[in-house]
Amino acid sequence: MIELVRAGDPAVCEPLAHGDVVPAHFHDFGQLRYAASGALVTSTGAGTWVAPANRITWVPPFHVHSSRSHGRTDVRLLEVPAEPAGRLPAEPSVFAASALLREAFLATIGDPADGPRTRLLLEVVVSELVRAPREPLRLPEPRDARLKAVTDLLHADPANPATLAELGHRTGSSERTLSRLFATELSMGFPQWRTLLRVQRALLELGEGRSVTDTAIRLGWANPGSFIDAFTELVGHTPGRYRAAIE
Fold it and tell me: What InterPro entries would the database entry show (predicted)?
């Protein structure tokens, strides 16, 4: 049973060790989540979002979500009441954090949630988020058990080079059935889903300081060039530029 987590969550969580999981829950308020170090992976019924340091995750009120840390993760939280929450997207999202957005967010930590200074800073944060670019990398997650068996294998090893037919053989489903499920349930083909998964994981690898070449090899690309092309198409800039921006 999922319990309602009400106002009063601490603004600063205890640091999470690599791989720590926060079980599925929801709030009656919106929540902004910023990883000052490490990275936070947020999962909902609609998909999975990855937020390395310098990204802010938005979770609307009543959205059931769980979290997993990547690296030692220092998470800061900001409660967003119903009125300003209505100005933000109706679905979970990840935003690039400008310097102003980040500093206004961090300046709220430790102040009373209903204090005049916090309200003023929250208005700055929400105004910046309304104009901030949203990351396009939502990875849809399946509900069908046959499809989930396949995606679980790939989550465990994104570099797995198996074809859909081979994965189907391992999980007891036909390639035709799985291909249909990818299209009808996730609205994309198997190659597109696996590329999205690998690019999401690449954000984490690059955030840890791994080189572009090492990241490409670890995540199963045939060569760095094909990784750079896929990453740039989905993220909007090259992995080298992304890595430099977060150093």
Answer: AraC-bd, Homeodomain-like_sf, HTH_AraC, RmlC-like_jellyroll, RmlC_Cupin_sf
